[in-house]
Amino acid sequence: MYSSGMRPSFTLGIEEEYQTIDPVTRDLRSHIQTEMLAKGKLRLEERVKAEMHQSVVEVGTRICQNIKEAREDITDLRRQMIQLAEEAGLLLVAGATHPFADWRAQEIYPDPRYAQVVEDLQLVARANLIFGLHVHVGIEDREAAIRVMNSMRYFLPHILALSTNSPFWLGMNSGLKSYRAKVFERFPRTNLPDYFSSYSEFENYVNLLIKTGCIDNAKKIWWDIRPHPFFNTIEIRVCDIPLRVEETIALAALIQATAATLWRLHARNIDYRQYSRALLMENKWRAVRYGLDGMLIDFGREKEVPERDLIHEYLSFVGDMADELGSREEIGYINRILEMGTGADRQLKVFAESGGDMKAVVDYMAAETRAGL
């Protein structure tokens, strides 16, 4: 199919979206009136930017050659953003939803691009007060990128389950481990993509949407995984932002090793089994609802299996590639997540132990955001 000479770079890029919070009320607070963004741009240049809501700030690493570089970069970004928030009299929190903030009270960032999104999507855009983690993996050959994307869809529910960190919404326990996923799917062109037989089939799809006025460019395709329209990467967008930077690094390492493992199979003309989107969405729902505590479907065996068992199998599936990429230590932290629970599990524990005190949950989230820095 392709010669090993075409081996992708598997470079990494990590983007995290943070909450800016009032230290007194613990509610979300706009960073607009502060110098936070301006200072951030001075210190971190293009690595920091505003998001649609004024209480969201996004950082992105440079293109990193390996997980060690990515670790250094994202850790530095987090540390600097915490510092900038403090200088602005704010707290920085990594959580995929805020436990009790009301999106109706949140202002939209003044920018023509966001104004257009709100115009197009109306209340759906305004209510989209969520915070994600996006991981880019460099795959230069576009055909290879599509084939890896097709196969990687199978693993996205498992990756989501490990990242779940949004159990609360509008001051309520949603009963889900990733409420963020349900908020975001109100947007058009979200969730898992269909199978594409080639890059040209994907291009034809994009061109038809542009031609018919559905989108102005492929960035408005918000799937859980996509070939990035402007970079030679596949972008995995399924994750909640986790509490700890170590969790982010572990997920990025797992994503990179998964892409590389699947690419190597394709390069040997071994195709990973494809399942329909309808089936894969069953597993996604289970990941959203139960996180690591659920049973996911093993489609090969046609039976339910505890998610934790599947994660152990998954880790051995990518083990060789983790060694090759030098990321075994980073991926090893996944075992720690299995022990201590995801951010959602830990938030729920604090909520229960504090007698339902949402402010205690926010304080815990702020502490975890700083953990290990």
Structure description:
The protein has 373 residues and is of the alpha+beta class. It is 47% helix and 14% strand. It contains 15 helices and 11 strands. The strands form 3 sheets. Strands 1, 2, 3, 4, 5, 8 and 9 form a 7-stranded antiparallel β-sheet that branches. β10 and β11 form a beta hairpin. The radius of gyration is 20 Å and the shape is globular. The chain starts with 11 loop residues before the first strand and ends with a helix. The N terminus is likely disordered.
Features:
seven-stranded antiparallel sheet; 15 helices; 373 residues; two-stranded antiparallel ribbon
Topology (elements, then pairings):
Layout: E1 12-21, H1 36-44, E2 48-50, E3 56-60, H2 67-87, E4 91-93, H3 112-121, H4 123-126, E5 132-138, H5 142-152, H6 156-163, E6 168-169, E7 172-173, H7 179-184, H8 199-211, E8 225-227, E9 233-240, H9 245-267, H10 277-290, E10 295-298, E11 303-306, H11 307-317, H12 319-325, H13 328-340, H14 343-353, H15 358-370
Antiparallel strand pairs: 1-3, 1-4, 1-5, 2-3, 5-9, 6-7, 8-9, 10-11
Helix pairs in contact: 1-2, 2-9, 5-9, 6-10, 9-12, 9-13, 14-15
Would you summarize the structure shown here?
The protein is α+β, with helices and mostly antiparallel strands. The protein has helices spanning 36-44, 67-87, 112-121, 123-126, 142-152, 156-163, 179-184, 199-211, 245-267, 277-290, 307-317, 319-325, 328-340, 343-353, 358-370, and strands at 12-21, 48-50, 56-60, 91-93, 132-138, 168-169, 172-173, 225-227, 233-240, 295-298, 303-306.
